[in-house]
Design goal:
By secondary structure, the chain is α+β, with helices and mostly antiparallel strands. Among the domains are: 47-176, no CATH class; 261-273 and 280-410. It has helices at residues 57-60, 85-94, 134-145, 166-196, 201-221, 226-236, 241-252, 262-278, 285-298, 305-321, 325-349, 359-369, 374-377, 382-388; strands at residues 49-50, 72-73, 102-111, 118-127, 129-130, 148-153, 156-163. Strand 3 and strand 4 (118-127) form a beta hairpin.
Length: 410
């Protein structure tokens, strides 16, 4: 069985770190003893401690103009119970948050018109300091006014949602959570990709950490999110296949909130299918097949020939192990056709006339080495298939027809 590594990763990626680990300054001088102060009945409140997280309103708030379905930007004065920017900042100030350490972004929304209109508000509140009294104060205000709270990080990245009805408020919170999870994941992965292209190891490590923190915040916001689990599965694929498999299964769940896009579904499905086939356990082969079928359907627009080849080749392996030879031959031929066509085109573009796609090695592995193909090698169709796609045959000068888009079926 040929199991392809995820192409999105590179070997030098550092392990994800979900918390800042900046070294603390060390004072080489011993501390001088401080004079004792007389005890009092009421301890003095702890001073606020500044803490800066690498993401704020710009990473979590919805894009300009983005609105939940059926809602429009509200222009009327918000009801008294609704959270306003002034009310949230006043709450933070009363709890001892220094001026400037708290920020709020509030979006007023309206659904319907006239007397039957429903009013709603979504607000992001960020506080870059720790004060023990703030969280209880915010919770008390939420209970008093009917706000829904969703914490994303500590010290504070909090989503505050309100609407005329609890059902509407819950819907707005769900929409805003989905928006934020996508924003955090997309921007976090962009940081990780940027880290891969850097040459400074320290800068690369720091960018990777920052990207991991954003993706981690998305997972705290919605642990079952499809896009979050797809990305974490990709990050763990080469280091911890068992953990990657569990995240991949969550990403592929049909009821996963904030589902992953087609490319991430394809990458995740190939990873899940590959790990399951590696187990050499007959009880999971059908699950591997189903995951790979979903991946093939999702990656029809992908342009990477190795991904397209690998998905179908692994699917052929699954069908062969299930003794479904017709489907196995279908996907094996598709996999070889995809890669051979890309190999021929790549050779034309190469100055040396040599392709780096490794078609010869993939063909040789399928023809003689892969044990998953054992049952197919005794089939009367095998010799013709191997002769058609033999890279060393003279007939190779005739270009293989460009593969057509398929429907990803059996």
């Amino acid at each position: 069985m040929r199991v392809l590594a995820l192409l999105l990763l590179v070997a030098f990626l550092a392990p994800p770190v979900w918390a800042e680990d900046e070294p603390k300054p060390v004072d080489p001088k011993p501390e001088e003893p401080k004079p004792e102060t007389p005890a009092t009945d009421t301890p003095a409140p702890a001073a606020p401690t500044p803490v800066t997280l690498p993401f704020g309103l710009e990473h979590m708030a919805p894009a300009a103009g983005a609105l939940p379905e059926g809602w429009s930007a509200g222009n009327s004065p918000p009801p008294k119970a609704a959270p306003t920017e002034a009310a949230l900042l006043a709450l933070a100030k009363a709890a001892g948050i220094p001026e400037g350490a708290a920020k709020a972004q509030v979006t007023g929304l309206t659904k319907g018109e006239g007397e039957v209109a429903t009013h709603g508000v979504t607000a992001w509140l960020t506080v870059d300091t720790t004060v023990d009294t703030f969280a209880p104060a915010l919770k008390s205000a939420a209970e008093k006014n009917g706000w829904l709270l969703k914490s994303v990080a500590v010290p504070q990245r909090v989503l505050v949602t309100w609407a005329d009805t609890k059902e509407a408020a819950t819907g707005l919170q769900r929409w805003q959570v989905a928006q934020s999870v996508r924003n955090l994941c997309t921007q976090g992965w962009a940081m990780i990709e940027a880290a891969n292209g850097g040459f400074d190891p320290q800068a690369r490590q720091k960018a990777f950490q920052r990207g991991g923190l954003l993706i981690g915040a998305a997972g705290k916001t919605e642990p079952a999110a499809g896009i979050f689990n797809a990305m974490i599965g990709a990050l763990l694929a080469q280091r911890d296949p068992a953990a990657a498999l569990e995240h991949g299964r969550r990403a592929l769940a049909k009821d996963a909130p904030v589902p992953a896009g087609d490319l991430w579904i394809a990458v995740t499905a190939n990873s899940v299918g590959s790990v399951l086939l590696m187990k050499m356990d007959a009880s999971v082969v059908a699950e591997a097949r189903d995951a790979l079928l979903r991946g093939v359907a999702a990656e029809k627009s992908a342009t990477n020939p190795i991904m397209r080849f690998g998905m179908r080749y692994n699917l052929a392996c699954a069908y062969a192990r299930l003794d479904e030879s017709d489907a196995a031959f279908k996907h094996l031929e598709e996999s070889l056709r995809f890669l051979k066509h890309a190999w021929q085109e790549d050779k034309k573009k190469s100055f040396s006339g040599v392709s780096s796609l490794g078609y010869e090695q993939h063909y040789a592995h399928a023809k003689s080495i892969d044990t998953d193909m054992a049952t197919l090698r005794t089939d009367a169709r095998w010799p013709k298939l191997m002769a058609t796609y033999d890279p060393s045959a003279k007939a190779d000068e005739k270009p293989v027809e460009k593969p057509a888009k398929d429907e990803g079926g059996k």
